[in-house]
Specification:
Strand content of chain B: over 45%
Number of helices of chain B: 0
Radius of gyration of chain A: 14 Å
Distance between the termini of chain B: 37 Å
Largest sheet of chain A: 6 strands, mixed
Number of strands of chain B: 11
Number of helices of chain A: 0
Largest interface: A-B, 22 and 27 residues
Shape of chain B: globular
Helix content of chain B: under 10%
Oligomer: heterodimer
Structural class of chain A: mainly beta
Order of helices and strands of chain B: EEEEEEEEEEE
Radius of gyration of chain B: 13 Å
Shape of chain A: globular
Largest sheet of chain B: 7 strands, mixed
Strand content of chain A: over 45%
């Protein structure tokens, strides 16, 4: 069956360190993968999109990698700040034309000052 | 740009009543809108996809007669939870996209509590 897995345990790191979150998937052939941030009681906010033919994407302190052989995406936040504390969701879009997003369960990041 | 609003932001209703949730794209025309449901500490689960002027496509296991979706214009979609029951209590989130496989912009969500 199709699965998207993110580390369900919360990630606690010290301010200034790099946070690395993992998204693994099975039985998918995603056209592209997206990362979102979600704060409690709010809708997700789009962060980055990476296509199947791209290895890495950067935006300010954020970096995403996409390895279609390993079926894995890594999401990095460098020089992390307490304001980065939130739940981060990965989402896949399949190769069909529907545009449907399938979300992982999210990883909660806590950055301590 | 690309702002999506939802109304109401929260609603409490009695069991057996119907509740309508609106999703609006404020500064762009949304060809496609999506409705999601999220239970506490779980991920977003897609309920249905709606394209302006046509019937919504529901995901497996979602009752189309219970969750009525109307996408009457390029800026408005509504989700009506009919004869709501406590198990329908959840966080309902919509998203809107300019094109079928384009970036989705999410609304702030609606918290529904059915007593």
């Amino acid at each position: 069956s199709q699965k998207i897995e993110q580390n369900s345990e919360a990630l606690n790191i010290q301010e200034g360190k790099t946070a690395t979150l993992t998204c693994n998937y099975t039985n998918y052939s995603p056209a592209y993968l997206q990362w979102y941030r979600q704060d409690p009681g709010r809708g997700p906010v789009f962060l980055l999109l990476i296509r199947e033919n791209e290895k890495e994407k950067r935006k300010e302190r954020l970096k995403v990698t996409f390895d279609t052989t390993l079926k894995q995406s890594l999401f990095h936040i460098t020089a992390s700040q307490p304001a980065d504390s939130a739940t981060y969701l990965c989402a896949l879009v399949g190769s069909s034309n529907t545009g449907k997003l399938i979300f992982g369960q999210g990883t909660t990041l806590q950055v301590k000052p | 740009g690309a702002v999506v609003s939802q109304h109401p932001s929260w609603v409490i209703c009695k069991s057996g009543t119907s509740v309508k949730i609106e999703c609006r794209s404020l500064d762009f025309q949304a060809t496609t809108m999506f409705w999601y449901r999220q239970f506490p500490k779980q991920s977003l689960m897609l309920m249905a996809t709606s394209n302006e002027g046509s019937k919504a496509t529901y995901e497996q296991g979602v009752e189309k007669d219970k969750f009525l979706i109307n996408h009457a214009s390029l800026t408005l979609s509504t989700l009506t939870v009919t004869s709501a029951h406590p198990e329908d209590s959840s966080f309902y989130i919509c998203s809107a996209s300019r094109q079928v496989r384009g970036e989705q912009f999410f609304g702030p969500g609606t918290r529904l509590t059915v007593l």
